[in-house]
Design goal:
single chain, mainly alpha, 6 helices
Length: 173
């Protein structure tokens, strides 16, 4: 079965897994780049800022450890969801297409729904270095997500494809 013939449910599964994997690559890049920001810009990055903003708006006190857990879970869930959306459109994107998708996710999020819901200010009001960091890690997310999707599609056609179970046929003495 060719990738363009994959059922929507399969595309969503592949994209969700790949988006989760891409989010790990993104998170690693975020952590490494964050420490290079000037000290006055080294405050929490958006996954945590979003959690804190939503909690403040809802007037809910959230302990630091709980906020870290929520930020982590939400960050990975959002990455998986965006990966699923990308795969619904194209389950076998190039790294370039993935990187462009990552940029689109950044734009739609930080210039779109996040400020529209008054969660954070639009990116135009964030420090330039932090924006460059966030755009860069979204490029990394997209490229890593695209690579993971292609690997999963290839795995379905090779190691996960139907075939004779040779292990079941052999006997162990």
């Amino acid at each position: 079965m060719k990738d363009e013939k994959l059922k929507l449910g399969t595309r969503l599964l592949i994209g969700g897994i790949a988006g989760f994997v891409g989010t790990m690559a993104m998170t690693s890049a975020m952590r490494r780049l964050h420490r290079h920001l000037p000290e006055k810009e080294r405050y929490p990055l958006p996954p945590r800022e979003i959690v804190d903003s939503v909690a403040e708006t809802a007037e809910v006190a959230v302990e630091d450890e709980t906020a870290k857990d929520i930020a982590t879970a939400a960050h990975f869930a959002y990455g998986a969801m965006m990966g699923a959306m990308l795969a619904a459109m194209n389950p076998n994107p190039s790294k370039r297409t993935g990187a462009l998708a990552g940029t689109a996710v950044w734009l739609a999020s930080y210039m779109g729904w996040i400020p529209a819901l008054n969660v954070l200010e639009p990116a135009t009001r964030h420090p330039k270095r932090r924006n460059f960091l966030m755009i860069g890690v979204h490029l990394a997310w997209g490229a890593a997500t695209a690579s993971a999707m292609r690997e999963l599609v290839a795995a379905r056609e090779s190691m996960l494809a139907a075939g004779r179970d040779k292990d079941a046929e052999s006997s162990i003495d």
